[in-house]
Amino acid sequence: MIFQLKRPSSLNWKDNDAERVLKYLLNYNSYDYEGDSGHYSLRFRDRGKIWTSEFEVIEEKILIWGIYPFECIDPEKGMDFCNSSNLQTVMGAFSVYKAHLTYRTSADLFDAYSSYECLARALEYNANVIIHFWSKASEASSDNKNFSKGKEDCSS
After folding, report:
1. DSSP 8-state symbol, 15
2. What's the mean pLDDT in 47-73?
3. How many Å separate Cα 105 from the centre of its chain?
4. Which fold has domain 18-141?
5. Cα–Cα distance, 17 to 140 (Å, whole number)
6. Residues facing residue 105 across a β-bridge
7. Helix (H) / strand (E) containing 39
8. Assessment of whether the complete model's pTM goes beyond 0.90
């Protein structure tokens, strides 16, 4: 794994209040985030790449959106990227959200004993997918006419 969070000891923290779990995990990893009332955002940085992640708490679930910093110029190219990349991912899906290519995952925190681990895994997976597809997402977001789903290499 490229992107990895520090995890609190599962023996000491048994909680399934999704908002409290999210805030604690972000604070535990020294991330500065903004927001309140179940809607939060922050900027991640890894290997020279910077992107925004947004979080929405819905009861025992946390939705995570990893949002690329570049605007998607051509919606058709963006959707071609999403369709071909979604064939290669397991825990979420690419879409065009707020005119940006975005990867969404979620964490169900129904079990107090595994809530931190579940959220950390979902967040790490989201971040690693963002990093893995960075070049292809950048190319699909540009106004370069060479991108086409027929020519994209789906092997990575």
Report:
1. -
2. 95
3. 6
4. Yope Regulator; Chain: A, (3.30.1460)
5. 38
6. 64
7. strand 39-46
8. no
